[in-house]
Specification:
Length: 372
């Protein structure tokens, strides 16, 4: 067995698969409440909270589509129909290849739907099989799940492997405009969704999103730099250096995950003990990390460009006293953990080192999210 086999878990059992998707549905819905709580406590401004919530909803729709695709896993005679593969070592999320296949399926969804029986026809065939042949219509149920899957992904509004930058104007002051740019990726190196939010000043002659040359080039640049291994400072300086009239003023990055669960992941350290003591295998057997990196501009300086001209470059604020942020390429880094009430109680009792500065969001049995 190679290392990838050890790192990945195939959910070939129908109960494990459905339990996994049900759990993630609950987690993602709670994350939307976490974003609302952060907005209420002024950790997120209105436009950031709106963009984050939209990506979280897209992620929820993606999990809904995958749950439909694998609804009949283990229930059909053929094992070649596949099952969901989860990154059990690093993230607890599906491996990136699952989203790559879904993107490919979306391109061919209309053709598949055209060649499939309609939902009404499939239901009628199921009834005839149950009443006339007195047997379970397993193959028809599988066909129905695939039709619903293709219908779901054909609607769009999903979290894809790459979610290209979108741009909207915030303000216009004389010759300068301020834009809000947001984009997201499903990072294949760590199998985690990563969301980027940026504000830039635009001193170009045409508004950035309407500039036929600059905007496609900026989009391509940002997507190429959207790697977990690159610091925010590297990304912002790269944009600042490559586009003289695009001035990044702030850049935030949100790592959604990892998700920890004794049922699906092989976490090490205090979290393993916390989850095992709290409710191993139960509905509260989970915790989700959320890391927020922020980089802010602290001013500008002029640099010579060519023989006779100068360009404006950003000076970014790096705080060397904030958990090594001077080396991590960020102004500040905020780590959070979202977990149900019972694991939080165990966490509070054990008080392991390293968690004192981690922000806690606790999900009550009624579904409320408490910021502690």
């Amino acid at each position: 067995m190679d290392s990838s086999d050890c790192d990945h878990l195939e959910l070939a059992d129908v109960y494990a698969s459905r339990h996994y998707f049900r759990r993630f549905s609950e987690i993602l819905q709670r994350l939307e409440r976490v974003a609302a709580a952060m907005h209420a406590s002024d950790q997120l401004n209105r436009i950031d909270a709106r963009a984050l919530t939209d990506y979280l909803k897209r992620l929820d729709f993606t999990f809904d589509a995958l749950s439909t695709k694998y609804l009949m896993v283990g229930q059909t005679p053929s094992r070649s129909l596949g099952s969901l593969t989860v990154d059990r070592r690093e993230s607890g999320f599906p491996v990136a290849s699952e989203l790559m296949r879904m993107a490919n399926d979306a391109q061919q969804a209309s053709r598949h739907l055209t060649n499939m029986p309609s939902t009404r026809e499939l239901k009628a065939q199921m009834i005839r099989t149950i009443l006339g042949e007195c047997r379970s219509p397993t193959r028809l149920q599988y066909a129905m799940s695939q039709r619903l899957y293709y219908e779901e992904i054909s609607r769009g509004a999903l979290f894809w492997i790459q979610n290209d930058p979108q741009c909207e104007m915030l303000d216009s002051d004389g010759g300068r405009r301020r834009f809000f740019i947001h984009w997201a990726v499903y990072d294949s190196q760590v199998n985690l969704p990563v969301i980027y939010l940026m504000e830039v000043d635009d001193s170009g002659s045409a508004p950035l999103p309407k500039d036929e040359y600059r905007w496609p080039a900026v989009q391509a640049h940002l997507m190429a730099q959207s790697l977990a291994g690159l610091t925010l400072l590297t990304i912002a300086r790269g944009l600042d250096a490559d586009f003289d009239d695009v001035h990044p003023k702030r850049l935030h990055r949100y790592h959604i995950g990892p998700m920890y669960s004794s049922s699906y992941t092989e976490q090490a350290g205090p979290l393993r003990q916390i989850l095992e003591q709290a409710c191993p295998g139960g509905e509260d057997d989970w915790a989700l990390a959320w890391t927020q990196e922020e980089l802010d501009s602290d001013g500008t300086q002029e640099e010579r460009s060519g023989w006779f001209s100068k360009v404006e470059r950003e000076i970014f604020a790096l705080d060397p006293f904030s958990d090594g942020a001077g080396h991590s390429g960020a102004t500040r880094t905020l780590r959070s953990i979202i977990l149900p009430q019972r694991p939080y109680q165990v966490l509070a009792e054990l008080a392991p080192s390293g968690f004192a500065d981690v922000q806690k969001f606790v999900v009550s049995p009624s579904g409320q999210v408490l910021h502690l």
